[in-house]
Amino acid sequence: HTEDELSRSSHSNPGKSLVNGIKTNPASNSPKSSLSVPMGPPVYVDLAYIPNHCSGKNTDPEFFKRVRASYYVVSGNDAANGEPSRAVLDALLEGKSQWGENLQVTLIPTHDTEVTREWYQQTHEKQQELNIMVLASSSTVVMQDESFPACKIEF
Question: Where are the annotated segments for Disordered (predicted)?
Fold first, then answer.
């Protein structure tokens, strides 16, 4: 379809709108339900970056049910925007609990945040039960005038 055809098709059907060329129902306009993604088998990867700085805007338990990683990177460091989101960290626990296999998962936070610390302490028993390890690193990389924490990942 050309851009004009896509535009016309959304105007000719006012009950529907287009998102990335897919017709969606505006009544279910939440980010988590706006696209109907067909179910399929889970995808196994070594490393997955939790989308949107671990914000709850578009990551839910379904992400963790379908994207099964040995390592998940949590990069959020903006409490004002809910990054990282406690709900997303809880979604990891919920999603992983439905894998049906007890594969080792390592969570790699790139920042030391209050949300991450509280989640770790409050859910530590559940993490152990689900074979989830949170990687804490005291390594620091120094480059010119900057220094920042670092983690080493081996595959």
Answer: 1-37
35-92 residue pLDDT tens: 455 678 999 999 999 887 677 777 888 999 999 999 998 887 776 776 688 999 999 9
Output the CA angle 18-22-23, nearest 5 degrees.
60
Closest CA to 67 of 84, 51, 44: 44
Domain that holds residue 140: 43-149
Distance separating alpha carbons of residues 130 and 79, to the nearest angstrom: 27
The span from the CA of 58 to the CA of 53, in Å, is: 10
DSSP assignment string, 97-122: TTSSS---EEEEESS--HHHHHHHHH
Token representation of residue 38: 């067909």
Q: Is residue 20 situated within a structural domain?
A: no
Looking up tokens 């399929």 gives 40
Q: How many domains does the chain have?
A: 1
Question: What is the helix (H) or strand (E) element at residue 128, kind and residue range?
Answer: helix 114-129
